[in-house]
Amino acid sequence: MFATLKFAALLLAVVVCWATQDYDYNDTEIDEEPTLGDSQYGSLWPLPQKVQISTVVFKLSGASFHIFDAKESSCGASCRLLQNAYRRYDEYIFTSSRKQGQNKSKKALACDMSELQVWITSADSECDSYPSVTSDESYKLSVDSPVAVLKAPKVWGALRGLETFSQLVYKDEYGAKSINRTDIHDFPRFAHRGLLLDTSRHFLPIKVILANLEAMAWNKFNVFHWHIVDDPSFPYLSRTFPQLSQHGAYHPYTHVYTPSDVKMIIEFARLRGIRVIPEFDTPGHTQSWGKGQKDLLTPCYSGASPSGSFGPVNPTLNTTYDFMSMFFKEVSTVFPDAYVHLGGDEVDFSCWKSNPDIQKFMEQQGFETDYSKLESFYIQRLLDIVTTTNKGYMIWQEVFDNGVKLKSDTVVHVWMGNKVEEELQKVTKAGFTTILSAPWYLDYISYGQDWQKYYRAEPLSFKGTDAQKKLVIGGEACLWGEYVDATNLTPRLWPRASAVGERLWSDRDVRDLNDAYSRLAKHRCRMVQRGIPAEPLFTGYCAHEYKGV
Amino acid sequence: MFATLKFAALLLAVVVCWATQDYDYNDTEIDEEPTLGDSQYGSLWPLPQKVQISTVVFKLSGASFHIFDAKESSCGASCRLLQNAYRRYDEYIFTSSRKQGQNKSKKALACDMSELQVWITSADSECDSYPSVTSDESYKLSVDSPVAVLKAPKVWGALRGLETFSQLVYKDEYGAKSINRTDIHDFPRFAHRGLLLDTSRHFLPIKVILANLEAMAWNKFNVFHWHIVDDPSFPYLSRTFPQLSQHGAYHPYTHVYTPSDVKMIIEFARLRGIRVIPEFDTPGHTQSWGKGQKDLLTPCYSGASPSGSFGPVNPTLNTTYDFMSMFFKEVSTVFPDAYVHLGGDEVDFSCWKSNPDIQKFMEQQGFETDYSKLESFYIQRLLDIVTTTNKGYMIWQEVFDNGVKLKSDTVVHVWMGNKVEEELQKVTKAGFTTILSAPWYLDYISYGQDWQKYYRAEPLSFKGTDAQKKLVIGGEACLWGEYVDATNLTPRLWPRASAVGERLWSDRDVRDLNDAYSRLAKHRCRMVQRGIPAEPLFTGYCAHEYKGV
Question: Which of A392, B10, B157, B343 is a plausible cystine mate for B152, CB 3.0–4.6 Å?
């Protein structure tokens, strides 16, 4: 009986290995025949640039399958980033199925996929570097028996390819871990694929930030735009100015990010190929700064006397710029990324207008009553300060719109919902790189499948030259914090942000909603099984429902 | 030094006991001076009918405070419902602060609140009964040193009063558990305060249902309307017809509610004073029934031949009524509540129209082409069947609108968004009791503080006699399942459903949005601290943020 069973299993394996009908993504017009059923691309998300999936199936045995460094790889056991990733993906692939005490020495069958070799081809793997906007995230993945090979010039591509490999593994009808013969050549369409989280309107516990960095990696995002402080609270614990969080955080101990918290978040992100770009938004959105830093904000006047309330940063005092110099010097050392986001959005002039000292300064400078000139005066000096820290800067679109002189490597962040295409035209015509967020404000919610709206948005639909379009380096999904905290942020973000993830990674022509629905529904169940409460797209179920409440 | 400290503490206690400015809810026009700050009613939610809170403060020591049965109580240590509730509320009140090894024999100080006595005043406490629409939920709570007394005719009122007592306890600035001298006389404005959850469009794990029953109790809801089956899936495991879930559930083992699951949910609800009313919606919304029960649904025709798809329950076959008799006989024994919800909404006639057998039956019955007559024919027979099981029934408003003859104790469930007041007028004029859900479809989401919309809705704003208004016995918040499952249901429900909870419990005049905001923000932080991920109302924070992801 045992022998018979073994033979039957072998026979089945051989049959499974025979059928060889190949699909070629490039040969197929996926828009032509929308299917409500399964996608030929299984659960791949975001869809790789070039995919060939055959019907030949290999099995992965939890007892024998392993991820290894290829012998030829420029980077091996000493690369913590890769070893860490191997462990992570091994766990994802064999969730609960690689049981303790399993015979690790089991010999692989003929049709087993015994290992995945990871081969870093460039002499400098960048294993110990931080990712950047120029990081090479490309990879080639060849899944064929008895070994699969993942080739990437740098570790960043290897990380993306490991995720893709894990997405190719599925359970067959008998519950056996399986993978089809597959060839993939993949690279991102846009270099900047970001997610903005806001830790000022609500404090987000470290655990929540880490969990969402993890989910970002599954969706091939590579920038965490950390909108760390704003009007309501200042949770960033500054070594230089500890009074800022002491008085400006919701709570000076429980609702702050200490230097070691920040360090941990940056390293956790780096290990997943994710940049951390902090935003310290000024001169508006700074109410919480004023609680710990005297004279930083403009006192508002009611008639002839101060009203007791405060407006934007006071741009007329030298102490303001002294403070900013010291503050951004610290920021430039704490955050390794080459860029810092300086905000500059939504400056309300009413308080400046009410203040007689500001009025006097306006006269002296010859600004007459044009307060946008005062705003530009401030921003200009701030940009000069940040430039001395050797950082590049990102700014919200108003700074560009107001005609502030910007360094050539400035990234202009387009967020306003009206005249988006005109803005992209203008910014790129002026020669600036830009990223887009206007269509992707995920804090705005509505009934139904709004992921489709995010998915349909096309960053390059504006009129412009090829050179202009090349200046659009990507986009960011923004989840502002008015209505989200640890209780609801994660399900509100996923899989809605996944739609943005595919738009920014995959080819422009990947836009079939039915195919996307089929893949995304599976991708979201995978996120749920990996422990992230990604909400449902619509009626249906996952084999493994979320285990929390 | 030790003696000095002790003396200081005593002095402080005396001072705290001195100030005696009383607030009287009935004396105060809470609408007149909207305050953005704290409510004088602290974190009470829903607001009790009559509240007097004094400024005299007592301390609760985790070492000495306990909840006891009053000596005079008609119901004591043998009442599992109460003992269970005492333990629950003891834990809520002393979350993490009653540490192991603490000296339990510590003597109470003069100003300590040493115990809460629970006194059931009626001879029949109803400890072992199920709650019903006529259950007495009233209670009186007197908080005064050294004992607080909670008097209630029945255990149901005691449960409501225990929740209120726990809401009165707060931490003072030194972190000491405190409670003000308080007198409360409370009872619900409406007898039926329900929440509909839908376990067909998405399966909800038992854990999620129990957690939300718990949260319902905190908000003084008393009906769990379990929309257990519908088109997409049939998770109810029927002993009589196990094939229904075997073929109709998303998965026959992992996505079903077994008889013991159902029993557990009903008992968990009972211990919290919550009725479980199951809905088995027919003749529409029954696609999933058809998978396990041959010939139950109407075969749709495409021209002269069956199309392979199916429509509503087939009302022309005797086998249909045989099936329904057996099925509802089982339902009547599994669910102890006096009512069952029979649905009857949204019947699509197109499939009936396409079927030649149905057409023939229509002719025989003399219905001509009026398919609502066929619908009524079916419902009428179903109601007769259910009547023989000695259950009352609830039905969605269409059944009433279509003129089906209803038993006098039928509850008509008003859900349609248009002409709500007219419908309430009509239903109550016809002498039927009714509950309202139209303004409280919580599955519809929008940006911002939509809880205010739910809060403003007033069930008795329609024109009608006092007798008519008395027929409105309450309402239900509905969270239909298209877009919610275990990942996002709980934060989407709370505290939005809390707004409905106060509307249905508190006095009609309790409608000050500022006061409500202040209390509800605290109430939601309390829910978070008790482990439920209730989402934020707006920008801000909780002292104890949610610990999950």
Answer: B157
Contact B543 A254 (CB under 8 A): yes
Residue given tokens 């399986």 in the structure block: A178
Token code pair at residue B307: 């199309």
Within a domain: residue B308?
A: no
Rounded Cα distance, B86 and B195, in Å: 25
What CATH number is associated with residue B64? 3.30.379.10
By C-alpha distance, which of B30, B32, B36 is closest to B540?
B36
Among the partner-chain residues A446, A487, A546, the one whose CB lies closest to the CB of B446 is A446
For chains A and B, count residue pairs whose Cβ atoms are closer than 8 Å.
141
Taking the C-alpha atoms of residue B164 and residue B159, their distance in angstroms, rounded to an integer, is: 9
pTM (two decimals): 0.92
Separation between Cα atoms, residue B445 and residue B452, nearest integer Å: 13
If one counts every other C-beta atom within 10 angstroms of the C-beta of residue B545, the result is 24
**Quick one: closest CA in B to A446, which residue?**
B446
- State how many domains chain B has: 2
* C-alpha span between A118 and A161 (Å, rounded): 9
Euclidean distance between CA atoms A168 and A178, whole angstroms? 8
**What single DSSP character describes residue A318?**
H
Is the Cα torsion angle B262, B263, B269, B270 positive or negative in sign?
Answer: positive
- Given an 8 Å threshold on Cβ–Cβ distance, is B549 in contact with A533? yes
**In the listed set A186, A214, A244, which residue is the last one of a domain according to the structure?**
A186
Residues in chain B with CB shorter than 8 Å from the CB of A485 are 535-536, 541, 545-546
Q: Which of A186, A220, A252 is the C-terminal boundary of a domain? A: A186
Give the whole-angstrom CA distance, residue B448 versus residue A435.
27
CB atoms within 10 A of CB B485: 25
Provide the residue type at B204 as one letter: L
**Mean pLDDT of all residues belonging to chain B:** 91
Predicted confidence band of residue B63 (pLDDT cuts 50, 70, 90) = confident
> Is residue A369 classed exposed, middle or buried when 0-12, 13-18 and 19+ CB atoms within 10 A define those classes?
exposed
Closest CA to A226 of A337, A135, A85, A381: A337
Domain that holds residue B529: 188-193+436-466+478-548
Q: Is A502 a catalytic residue?
A: no
Residue B121 within any structural domain of the chain:
yes
Residues counted in chain A: 549
Give phi and psi for B182, each to the nearest 5: -145, 145
A150-163 pLDDT, tens per residue? 999 999 999 999 99
Out of A38-42, B122-126, B156-160, B331-335, pick the least confident.
A38-42
| Greatest pairwise CA separation for chain B in angstroms | 99
Q: Which of A72, A91, A346, A458 is catalytic?
A: A346
Residue B405 pLDDT level (bands cut at 50, 70, 90): confident
B chain contacts of residue A446, beta-carbon cutoff 8 Å: 445-447
Closest-CA distance of chain B to residue A482, Å: 5
Chain B residues closer than 8 Å to A252 by CB: none
Compare all CA atoms of chain B with the CA of A253 and give the residue at the minimum distance.
Answer: B543
Bridging pattern class, strands A192-198 and A472-479: parallel
Specify if A271 maps to a domain: no
**A486 inside domain:** yes
Which ipTM was obtained for this model? 0.91
Distance CA A258, CA A242 (A): 10
Phi-psi bin for B403: left (phi > 0), alpha (psi -120 to 50), beta? left
* Chosen from A489, A541, A544, A546 to mutate, greatest number of chain B CBs within 10 A: A541
Option in B203, B492, B543 nearest A541 (CB)? B203
Residues of A in Cβ contact (< 8 Å) with B203: 541, 545
Q: Which residues of A touch B443 (CB under 8 A)?
A: 447
Q: Cα–Cα distance between A285 and B92 in angstroms, integer?
A: 38
* Nearest CB to A549 within list B201, B203, B211: B211
